[in-house]
Amino acid sequence: MAIDYNKSPQRSEPTAAAPGVSLSKVTLTKSAPSVSLTKRGATGGQLRINLQWSTGAAPAKKGLFGKLLGNSSGIDLDLACLWEFTDGTKGVVQALGNAFQAPYSGAPIIRLDGDDRSGAVTGGENMFIDLARVGEIRRILVFAFIYEGTPNWAGANGVVTLFPASGPEIEVKLDESDSGSPTCVIAMLENKGGEIVVNREVRYIKGGQADVDRAYDWGMEWARGSK
Fold first, then answer.
1. What is the dihedral sign for C-alpha 120, 143, 196, 115?
2. Collapsing DSSP states into helix, strand and coil, what is residue 135?
3. Which of 62, 79, 129, 201 could form a disulfide bond with 185, CB atoms 3.0-4.6 angstroms apart?
């Protein structure tokens, strides 16, 4: 399939829990899709966004880039995000095109820890966002796309977990599927008056990054790329 990349990067108190309620984790669902990181106590430090992939047959979770359901050809999934800062700059963070951080120079607000193409990394893929710089962030759209292999979202249990420096972790399960769509938009992080709000998306896109851009009106220029 055609893979896109951005061709013109720009400038760079504990309370008693109700029965069955976890104080250490919040799960976003269709009926409860949003949560404020700020109100949950995540007011600074590094926010880690982790994607894990489990086949269900294996006792332990595998990295997001893994061999799926015994398919010897494997599947290569990439974690990425579109970003827009308050100064009007916007771009993409992804392994494709070696766009591993934003801004593209200086201390990163967003960074991707690497590109696991073997499935051997048990920790999955991790993206980091510096919440000490909330004032510079307008919105960040986190998504995953299948770089290589056949879309098989229904055949595995994808989970993304946000780990703030403080406050409970936040979980989004990729519990819907579309076998014809190689891209899944996972979550939107938005700055609302200095408050970072996470909204569950779990929206499958029939296309690549340029199609995600159009679906969310990001307004960038794209060209084909490879890694």
1. positive
2. helix
3. 201
Q: Supply angle C-alpha 136, 141, 144, rounded to 5.
A: 140
Assigned CATH topology for domain 35-219: Lipoxygenase-1 (2.60.60)
In sequence order, what are the beta bridge partners of 62?
53
Q: Kindly list the strands in the beta sheet with 34-36, ordered across the sheet, starting from the edge strand earlier in the chain.
A: 34-36, 195-205, 183-192, 137-148, 76-85, 90-93
Structure tokens at 30: 């269709």
Contacts of 13 (CB under 8 A, 6+ apart): none
Q: Which pLDDT belongs to residue 114?
A: 66
What's the rounded Cα separation, in Å, for the pair 17 and 21? 6
Check residue 181 and give its pLDDT.
Answer: 87
Residue 186, Cβ density class (10 Å: 0-12 exposed, 13-18 middle, ≥19 buried): buried
> Per-residue pLDDT tens for 68-104?
333 434 556 688 999 999 999 999 999 888 899 999 8
pLDDT in tens, 167-215: 899 999 887 777 788 899 999 999 999 999 999 999 999 998 999 999 9
Give yes or no for a contact between 3 and 208, defined as CB atoms under 8 angstroms apart: yes
Task: Map out the domains of the chain as residue ranges.
Answer: 35-219
